[in-house]
Every structure is written in C-alpha cells, then in structure tokens.
Amino acid sequence: MKRIAIFASGNGSNAENMINYFRDSGLGWTVALVLSDRPEAKVIQRAVRLDVPYAVVSKTELGDSDIMIGLMERYSVDAIVLAGFLRMIPGFLIERYPGRIVNIHPSLLPKYGGKGMYGRHVHEAVVAAKESETGITIHLVDEHCDGGRIIFQARTAVAPDDTAAEVEEKIHELERLHFPCVTAAFLSGL
C-alpha cells in the first residue's frame, strides 16, 4: 500500500473527499497523514473524524528539512497532495518527491495564479475581469508558485451576473467531481 500525505490549510472538504475516495478505490493508495499549517483549520477535525493521523507544523517547522523529512518518513509518505495548502512547498520536499506532489488551483492556470491568488481572491478576480469561463487546474508542484506541469483542467461557464460566491460553488463542484479521480489516476501511473 502506497501512502499519501495531504497538506491543507482550511476547511478540508477536498481532503475529506480524497480520503474517502482512496479508502473506497482499492487502487493501492491510502491517506496516511493530514498536515496543516493552522492549528484551528477545520481539516484537522475532519482528519480526527475520519481516523487519519494529523500533524500541525509552523512556518518555521515547514522550512526545516529535518523536521519535515522526519515526519514524512515516520508516516512512510510516497506522495503529497496539496488540498488548499497556502504555503510554498520548500525545495527539499520538491527534491525528495519529484513529480509526486500534486496541487489543485481554482482557476485555469496560468490565469489567476501566483502569490495571493487562492480561494475567494481568485473568484473575485475572475468576476471582476468579466471572464466567460473559469475552472480548476490540477498540476505538479515545482519551485514556482502555481507552476509545474498541468495534469488536468476542467472548465465551467461564468454568467455575466455570477457573483464570486456563485463561481466558488461551481469550482467546488468541479473539485468534488475531478480532484480525487484525476489524482488517483496520476498516482497509479507512478
């Protein structure tokens, strides 16, 4: 059984979907750890409810290779999935897991990516620019913010009168539908 660490900073709906998907898939992968940089993040409550071990790391600890590599080794992590993790992944983790760190972004990259572009900020920018479509991008993580090879994109229409909240709901639906199965298909090819 290969093992995944999910890194998340917030609510954790994508993390929960991923945990349940891998539990039920029979694909030979399991979520071994949920890691958050925020002790108050709801993803921790989800991990506890789903009986998945969790860890909370500070910004300083995230940047410490001994701490992070030690944590990944303790849980025998084979791949990392970012599900709303708001910090940059340190280079030593990218080197340790080349081509094995997957992220989801709530826009059609390269549009609306980069520093400060996450969650509601992305949806507000899409609405302000009067875009006719938006979507999700699932991609590999490299040393550039929202860089890395694109694995998959899914699109949804943006109506002229859509609010950022309505766009966010459309994006959540795309995430729910695609993130676990696309990630599983990618990881199964490793």
Task: Explain what you see.
α1 (13-25) packs parallel to α7 (164-188) and α6 (120-128) packs across α7. β2, α2 (42-49) and β3 (54-56) form a beta-alpha-beta unit. The chain has helices spanning 13-25, 42-49, 59-62, 65-74, 91-96, 120-128, 164-188, and strands spanning 2-7, 29-36, 54-56, 79-82, 101-105, 133-140, 150-157. It is an alpha/beta fold and 190 residues long. The model has no long low-confidence stretch (mean pLDDT 96). The longest helix has 25 residues, at 164-188. Strands 3-2-1-4-5-6-7 form a seven-stranded mixed beta sheet, with helices on one face. The chain contains seven helices and seven strands, in the order βαβαβααβαβαββα.
Largest sheet: 7 strands, mixed
SSE order, as H and E? Answer: EHEHEHHEHEHEEH
Query: How much of the polypeptide forms β-strand, as a percent range?
Result: 15-25%
Mean pLDDT: 96
Helix proportion range: 25-40%
- Radius of gyration, taken over Cα atoms and rounded to an integer in Å: 16 Å
Structural class: alpha/beta
Span from first to last CA? 13 Å
Strand order of the largest sheet: 3-2-1-4-5-6-7
Q: Low-confidence spans: pLDDT under 50, at least 5 residues?
A: none
What is the overall shape?
Answer: globular
* Total strand segments: 7
How many separate helices? 7
